[in-house]
Amino acid sequence: MAQDQPAGVTDTGRTPALRLAALLLGAGVMHFVAPKPFDSIVPPQLPGKARSYTYWSGVAEIGVGTALLIPRTRRLGGRLAALLFIAVFPANIQFTADSVRNPKAPWALKAISVLRLPLQLPMITQALAVSRRTPRR
């Protein structure tokens, strides 16, 4: 039993939370290391500079990933992760639209971009499950 858990309480959300945290932290860091691909999928209808959205979403991913790592903030982190996955969905749609419309894009990229869209739903439900499964502190 972990030291940060009350006796008799099992945190069944821990392992999925750590997986989501790794995904979010990795993606968040990539927003700063290689921002250009993220800039390119910011929907053009949004006001302001694409780079600002790239950086702010990177900060959000790192923040939410960190919340998932910390037992005291894991429940909130699960809810925030679900909201974040919903918030970035328009960028995923933009990526898919751009890929499918681009005659020079490889077939595999087009297929991956289309098949990736429905994967947001399990990510959202997994994030909400982390929140539900994590004991109140």
Describe this structure in words.
There is one protein chain. With 137 residues, this protein is mainly α. The protein has 7 helices and no strands.
| Distance linking N and C termini | 15 Å
SSE pattern, N- to C-terminal: HHHHHHH
Beta-strand percent range: under 5%
Helical content (DSSP H or I, runs of 4+): 55-70%
**Major β-sheet annotation:** none
User: Which structural class do the helices and strands define?
Assistant: mainly alpha
Residue ranges: pLDDT <50 for 5 or more in a row?
none
Radius of gyration: 17 Å
Q: What general outline do the C-alpha atoms trace?
A: globular
- Helices, by number, come to 7
Residue-averaged pLDDT, rounded?
Answer: 92
Short description:
This protein has 137 residues and is mainly α. Helix content is 69%, strand content 0%.
What are its keywords?
single chain, 137 residues, mainly alpha, 7 helices
List the helices and strands and how they pair.
Layout: H1 14-33, H2 36-39, H3 50-69, H4 74-87, H5 89-101, H6 107-116, H7 120-133
Helix pairs in contact: 1-3, 1-7, 3-4, 4-7, 5-6
